[in-house]
Specification:
It is built from 13 helices and 20 strands. The protein is α/β, with parallel strands linked by helices. A hairpin with an 8-residue loop joins strand 3 and strand 4. Helix 2 crosses helix 13 and helix 5 packs across helix 7. Bound molecules: flavin-adenine dinucleotide.
Amino acid sequence: MKVGIIGGGYSGLGAAYYLNKEGVNDITILEYEDHLGGLASGFKRKDWKWPIEKLIHHWFTTDSYALGIAREIGLGNKLIIKDTKSSCFYNGRIAELDSATSLLRFPFLSFLNRIRLGMAMAYLRFDGNYLKYEKETSYSFIKRSMGKEVFKVLWEPLFQGKFGKYAEQVNAAWFWARIHPRTKSLAYIEEGFDKFTEAMAESIKDNGGKIILNSRISKITKEKDKFAVYRGRKKFIFDYLILAVPLQIALKMYNFPEDYKNKFSPLNSIGAQYFVLELKNKFLEDGTYWLNINDKNFPFMMVAEHTNFVDKKNYGESHIIWVGKYLDYESPLWKLGEKELLDNIIPFLQKINPKFEKSWIKSQFFSRFKNAQPILPLNYSKKIPEIETPIKNLLMLNMNQVYPWDRGTNNALGLGYKAAKIIKKNSQKK
Ligand SMILES: Cc1cc2nc3c(=O)[nH]c(=O)nc-3n(C[C@H](O)[C@H](O)[C@H](O)COP(=O)(O)OP(=O)(O)OC[C@H]3O[C@@H](n4cnc5c(N)ncnc54)[C@H](O)[C@@H]3O)c2cc1C
């Protein structure tokens, strides 16, 4: 049984890894880029010991697929698990907000609203029934349960930073999932996600799998019971095919029935653009790892200081921050060039740390990804694309399927697990 996987991000890698566990070894991963890892891929400067992700990446301690695989492939002793500090920037000040005690001290909300926020968050953590939340938008739910002040100060800027012009459409089950299982402890891995990606790839290859990079797949046809996959003129033949690429790309890759495509065409997604800045000095001096920007006028929605989580000795003693934002493709910021964007963010970084100067920047890395975050509208549970498509033995894996959970490498690996089980089961029916 030959299995083809298009896309070498975490869902594609996860599918290959778990297929191996099911005893399926004739697997070929075809990846567009010259590297694996997709959104979780990284880069490395010459004088750094470790690479870093282009977009901020960490795991939660509840991410059982990711941490489980890390242990299985011999990286368990490389996991770094630590409590981190999260804060908000509002009205020119930073305040911690990541625990009950920091909430009680949180200066940007009245005492009554802090209590109201704490009670609503506690309820969301306790309540396991997410489906009831999807009938209402997050905006409406937050205003109703936490009040207008909490909405304005805390959540509205974050929703706008995360979903841009789609912010008002996002259902409250997505919000529930952001609160319900979160842990204060985060996990990272020595040598970064690239190390994990590399070790997964080694494991897949050791089990007989092939990984072919620089493979842009433009056409797929079905010939009798097999799939013909074209990379330019080169043709690959598979019995099972997994499209482990964003939904919008998968729908264009194969000539699916019109009614099937139309079902998903109203689903939107948004892009992400991030700077990784290598700095001479510490930027978030209070030790904050993740800083939410609760000011809608900022051209970014978060700053995270990686070296407040992981030792700076791994990056040539430099301090590393990510500065990021999600954007819809019509946004003027999406069209700006890297230099203009950097010039644009510097005065805002100075608002956070007035000592910061452009000369602190030793190097910068800019990246822009389309299809970085799906928009989850009302009653989304009825709109989720299935892993199995209407075409026999053609599966697809994408961030639109992990609902109510937010996109994440752990959930991508989990999709890979499900795909492996489906293929194994279907192959036994023959
Ligand atoms: C800003 C940001 C921050 C994030 N932070 C975290 C975090 O802290 N922790 C976490 O766990 N997750 C995080 N995530 C989410 C995580 O990166 C994704 O959920 C996960 O990587 C998705 O994996 P995927 O395989 O589904 O998709 P992708 O990573 O998008 O992989 C798809 C792959 O398909 C390839 N491809 C596309 N078209 C073709 C083609 N025509 N032919 C061949 N190949 C093709 C692409 O090159 C890519 O490698 C973050 C995401 C973003 C955007």
